[in-house]
Amino acid sequence: MKPSRSDALVFFGATGDLAYKQIYPGLHALVRRGRLDMPIVAIGRKDLPVSEIVARAKESVTKAGGFDAAAFAKLSGLFRYVQVDYDEPATFARIRAAIPASKHPLHYVALPPEVYEAVATNLAKAGLHEGARLTLEKPFGHDAASAKALSELLYEYFPEEAIFRIDHFLGKEPVENIVYFRAANPLVESGFSRDHVDYVEITMAEKFGVKGRAKFYDDVGAIRDVVQNHLIEVVACLAMELPQGNSHDELSAERGRLIARIRALSNEDVVRGQVRGYKDEDGVRKDSTTETFAAVRLAIDSPRWQGVPFFIRTGKSFPVTVTEAIVRWKAAQHPILDERVPAAPNYVRFRIGPDRGIALGASVKKDGEAMVGEPTELVLCHTGAEQAAMTAYERLLGDAIEGERTLFARKDAVEESWRVVDPIVPNQEVFPYDAGTWGPAEAERVAPPGGWTNPK
User: Fold this and answer.
1) CA 237, CA 255: separation in Å to the nearest integer?
2) CA geometry: angle 197, 202, 206, nearest 5 deg
3) What are 364's strand-pairing partners?
4) Dihedral sign, CA of 105, 108, 111, 116?
5) What CATH number is associated with residue 219?
6) Mean pLDDT of 42-52
7) pLDDT (tens digit, 9 = 90+) per residue, 378-400?
8) Nearest CA to 129 among 151, 152, 162?
9) Residue 248 is among the residues annotated as catalytic for this protein
10) Distance CA 176, CA 286 (A)
11) CA-CA distance, 55 to 72, in Å (whole number)?
12) Of all helices (H) and strands (E), which one includes residue 53?
């Protein structure tokens, strides 16, 4: 049976940074496409007029680009504002008063994880949980045990099918395209295995630092912030068995099965780094050992991938902002070739952001009598960052409204991804590196054969 469509959006964290950067532009886009026509109840601790929320939303959408005056006029007419104290259950009755006719509200919580329990409990006390959905931002807990405990707590009020855990990478078009590209191209899919692949390399580089979220980041670090969720989900899309059906349950289940096969990390599999100057940021502890850089070597215990290393690298204050994954096939040498060393190995490159695309690397013969060649790259598709048809948050919010769960993280996958990183999070040496570089030299200890590939 098709899920009921949400009939109101209750938006916790309306004055926060995530709301400004992602949520307001996503709501504007949904209205512009005719996919959002319900009351939007913005929730905050401060006593504010709704006009201030509208002004903040307008500034956000204008800065993001693509401002549509007619669409924004409709959006601004949907906003209400309710002041709520998350620790005072009685104040949640104000939400019900703002949407008295709603039977299927969508509660979107863009707040720190430590208040999830209070919000869920007080929504239930106000009778706002029945027929409702609860959408939460990562991180879901801080380790496997706390993630499981959080889910068990939420189950007191919301069934699993009503809980939508956002990992916005799953809502990115190029991440979804990884699965499509594999399924639609047997030539590529047949080569995605230990028989043909030498290794897989994923880089998530950010040119910016931690300004605006330093206190949060100092409690989390690069591994918890992006490896445990975003980048392990990318590994799952690259390496999972393709589902035999097209339901969201089958796709999500295969992602979860793959993550369950990733071997738990040891200290030998990880190098952590911290950019110089990080401790000078407001909100960062002066004795902080939080990593702003991580290089990780993953192993997958499955018949398809046994023995194929997956290398992950992420960091702040890198030379560029870019995320991409490269699957490199094994090099081959044939007697007909005159080359003393094998030709450059084939690869497929998935550019995930800020621009996006897919490219194939191959070798072609140079002009002349000798059977020698040179590497070349065939770009199959490429879209600039400004040309993206749909942002991740527009897609995810729209799907949550419709009850479509395909692009949301499952409980089992979340807990398994914590299992992978739990052994190495607490206390390991952190190596310094300079801003504008690709991280500490020590990262070569877990680098792919020939060293890391620095995306352009």
Assistant:
1) 7
2) 165
3) 374
4) positive
5) 3.30.360.10
6) 94
7) 999 888 765 556 788 899 999 99
8) 162
9) no
10) 40
11) 11
12) helix 50-64
